[in-house]
Amino acid sequence: MPVQVANYCRDKIHVVLREVLRAGRGLGELGEVDVKEPWEKVFGDCFQKVDDEVSGKASRLSNGRPEPIAADNVGSTAVVAIVCSSHVITANCGDSRVVLCRGKEPIALSVDHKPDRKDERARIEAAGGKVIDWNGYRVSGILAMSRSIGDRYLKPFLIPKPEVSIVARAKDDDCLILASDGLWDVMSNEDACKVARRQILLWYKNNNDGANSDGGSEPTMNPAAKAAADCLVRLALSKGSGDNISVIVIDLKSRKKPKGKS
Fold it and tell me: Is Chaperone one of the keywords UniProt gives this record (predicted)?
């Protein structure tokens, strides 16, 4: 499976997002005003810029000549989360998904962009495209997602526009799971949250160093969250998932260092 677009998104989306945020104004304070529309513009501009660079419509280098980074039938889903002290802001384009594990309840913070979703199908057909049931519903009988970055051969039916959600954080928020459909094809939101929560607690029980005990706000990798992500990948493989399995877990709890350790 060609991975050029997925790798480019991994390396560049956060960089472009930072550039868009620095250039923008008027986002307002979270919780004080309705800021969903400005955030939709921020993420929309970010994803569109990355798509333009991937597709060769915009140069990736200063004074460089634009050229695509991959063939026109290569693309990628993309899901992004901004975690701050008061809110979680997410943007999703494609069939990846972000799930908040709050206590014992999973809360989906994105809705998969599938071609048979009523609004997505209407959008595709309004643009002159078709949704065909060919071993599952697919755009033009080919692709099983309705939004992506790249995939130039299916534009304008596929678009890079993300959907954005903003959720206030709560005391019983345990962790956040961002994963591609290779996980969600074989595991429910509830089961994934149970596994992630259990693995994080198990890691802290078995490791007496309290690493990254501030709930994942440090820029370094949180080993407990990584252990949870690794476990979810292994479980998806054991369940026979045949699609890409990419998983990130973010520990949202503030965890104290064990007694007796400096």
Answer: no
pLDDT digits (tens, 9 = 90+) for 212-253: 444 444 446 799 999 999 999 999 999 999 889 999 999 999
Residue 108, beta-bridge partner list: 99
pLDDT, tens only, 8-17: 999 999 999 9
**Predicted TM-score of the model (pTM):** 0.88
CA–CA dist 138, 134 (Å, integer) = 7
Between the alpha carbon of residue 211 and those of residues 3, 26, 31, 207, 255, the distances in Å are: 32, 37, 31, 9, 9
Q: How many CA atoms lie within 13 A of 181 on its CB side?
A: 16
Question: Hey, how many other C-beta atoms are within 10 angstroms of the C-beta on 74?
Answer: 20
